[in-house]
Structures are given as structure tokens and as C-alpha cells.
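Session log. Operator J.P. requested a structure for one protein chain; no other inputs attached. Running the standard single-chain path with C-alpha cell output.
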Amino acid sequence: MNSLNSEAFVVFGQHILWSDMVGNLFGLAALALGWRRSIWTWPVQFLAGLILFGAFFGHLTGSAGKQAVVMLVALYGWWQWQRGKEQGGDGHIAVRFATWRERAAMAAAAAAGTVAVALLFTAYPKLSWDPWPDAYIFVGTVVAMYAQARGMVEFWFAWLLVDLVGVPLNFANGYAFSGFVYVIYGALVLWGLRDWWLRSRQPARPTLEGAPA
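Structure written below.
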């Protein structure tokens, strides 16, 4: 990882690291694949998490921990989408809006998790220079990816909420490419949200035997 953490180039006074750039490009590809409901979103997301873990480790511990969790949830997402890939009637996972009970459970888990992780970071200052934003990103990412694994449209809303804090935090800590990419993430999230929203309103059509998926 030492070579990946070297400087790639400088743009507008911002030093771009190879790990930051490569990891976020994979993350961008994973988001685009998630929009298309391709199961390959998960291995690509795992690889992005692995690279970004190396980029953040030792500097932004909360963000590094987030990437470790990203890799674990990516494995869960792969398993979940493998099981449900025929539910959409086109060889892909079906998408839906969460129930109010599921929304309440995710909101409660996000709130309680953020407080718990922030208190942990506060108790051990070496884990994070800014406990609350790190905790918010850490827990918000877990909730977002869980919702994605379950095919919930709310996954896109969760990513938007994470990005609101993630963009300025990345710029403030020298990860400029992450900040720039998150702006593109925002556009993809809006398009993906629209696509999943519309798909959730369509009845699933059975796949005919011998028809292309």
C-alpha cells in the first residue's frame, strides 16, 4: 500500500493520492453498477473498500473502520443479491420502498450507532480527530449499504445524507479526489434514486424460460 499512498498529481493546490483516486474510481463504478442492479456492484465495492482502507488507515481511523465495514457488508450484499436475483423478474434483484417499521428501525440504529461510536472515538482520541463526523459517516455507510443489500430505495437517501458530511470532511483532511468524486456520486445517486423509485412502482414480470435476462 505504500506506493498507492504516494502522490499522483496536484490539482488546484490539492495533492491527489493514488490510493484516494483509484479507490474512489472503483467506488464510483460500484455505485453505477448498483444503479443498474448488477450483482458485480458488490465485488467492485469490496475492492474499493480495500484500497481506501489502505488510504485512510493511520490518519482517519473512523473512515478506515468504515471501509472495513464496507468490505463486510459487500460480502453480505453479494450473498443477499445472489439469493434474490430472480425476484425482479428480469434476472436482477427487485427493488422496493422500506416499510415504516423498517425505516424506524434503520433511523434508530443510525442514531444510536452514531452516538455509541462517537463516544468511543471521544474516549480514545487517537481513533479520530473529529469523533462525531467520523461516527456519522461510519454508521451512515453501514445503514446505506444494508438498505442496498435489501433492495430498498431508501439506500439512495441514506447515501445523500452521508455525502453531506463526507464531502467537506474529505477536503478538510487532504483527500481532495474523494471530495471531487463525491460530487459525481451526488449526481449518480439522484439518477439511481429516480430509476429505483420508478422500478419499485412496476409489478415484477416473470422471466420466460429461454428468454435473455
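Operator note: Strands lie at 7-11, 14-17.
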